[in-house]
Specification:
five-stranded antiparallel sheet
Length: 317
């Protein structure tokens, strides 16, 4: 019973390393959405050669005796993230820490060194922390973990599968789903109770839904443009994957649809009303979800709400 409550690793292993500069971490994506760094891989990246897996917490407690450390950092470091990794038919319990918390700890160590609160023998820890922060820079460390664990590739492969299905049906514009942001898909998943696998296993239904809410409602100029072009790739700095460049008009369209879906509270009748008022269908592409007759009473119920949302969206533009 107890093990069932412990989150499990969906992606990652001790051999799949997040490389930052000259150091590397074991990292995982858990089934509750958390990204974690394996706790016992942390001390080594600072050059600590002792045996304590709690070294980072103990070192910050040592600093705290000399200069105050944010209590929230100490409190969080004092609580391990317990998770389990499946190996064959068995599960192994492991301990992790939040990657963003790890970066906060690095900043704390660097600042303590700048303020003169570290001993000479401890300067190497601050130098290691400074190097890590410099290498990460303004990158999203959770996205770096997604790349290192294979989760980024997993998502992109399912987008590619959906694009291939649409291309096979002559829907050349479907290639642009590869550039749709993850945030858009996550909102659709909540609305339809789908997941990444559905882009592949239920490609016909997914394509029909996107035709209905997206491609049947964009302008003729945009529709013809995306039908004869493909998204270009953007190659990023080390540790991060290449990504497809979004079309600016299509991106704006998706952002508005995401806002409508969220504003509807995932209520299908409300969403269909909001969508039809904001983006009336320009072409019939065989979709069904947004063309149902939800009835006169529903229209009257949501009339004022729809108008206010419509005006707000156009003011943002």
């Amino acid at each position: 019973m107890e093990s069932a409550k412990i989150p499990s690793a969906l992606f990652g292993s001790e051999s799949q390393k997040l490389k930052i500069g000259n150091v590397s971490f074991s990292c995982y994506l858990l089934d509750n959405g958390q990204r974690v760094l394996l706790k016992n891989s942390i001390p080594k990246v600072f050059g600590y050669d002792g045996k304590s897996e709690n070294w980072l917490f103990e070192f910050l407690m040592h600093i705290n005796r000399l200069t105050p450390v944010e209590p929230v950092i100490l409190e969080a470091l004092g609580k391990d993230i317990v998770f389990q990794v499946k190996s064959g038919e068995n599960y192994t319990k492991k301990m992790g820490i939040s990657p963003n918390l790890f970066l906060e700890a690095c900043r704390t160590i660097v600042q303590a060194n700048i303020d003169g609160f570290l001993y000479m023998s401890e300067h190497r820890f601050a130098k290691a922390a400074e190097t890590i922060l410099k290498e990460v820079a303004d990158a999203d460390i959770e996205q770096l973990i997604d790349y290192a664990t294979g989760y980024e590739l997993y998502k992109q492969n399912h987008k590619e599968a959906l694009a291939r299905h649409m291309a096979a049906n002559g829907e050349t514009y479907g290639v642009w789903v590869k550039s749709f942001p993850d945030s858009f898909f996550r909102i659709v998943f909540l609305y339809k109770n789908w997941g990444w696998k559905n882009l592949n296993t239920d490609a016909p239904a997914f394509a029909s839904f996107l035709n209905d809410i997206v491609f049947s409602r964009v302008s003729d100029d945009l529709f013809h443009e995306i039908g004869r072009t493909k998204p270009r790739m953007q190659y990023r700095k080390k540790n991060t994957p290449e990504q497809y460049i979004e079309h600016p008009e299509l991106r704006a369209h998706l952002q508005t649809i995401s806002g409508l879906m969220t504003a509807s509270g995932n209520d299908e009748a409300v969403f269909e009303q909001l969508l039809s008022r904001t983006f009336p269908q320009v072409r019939n592409m065989g979709g069904t979800s947004a063309k149902k007759d939800v009835g006169q009473n529903a229209d009257a119920t949501f009339n004022i709400f729809n108008d206010s949302i419509h005006r707000a969206l156009h003011r943002k533009k």
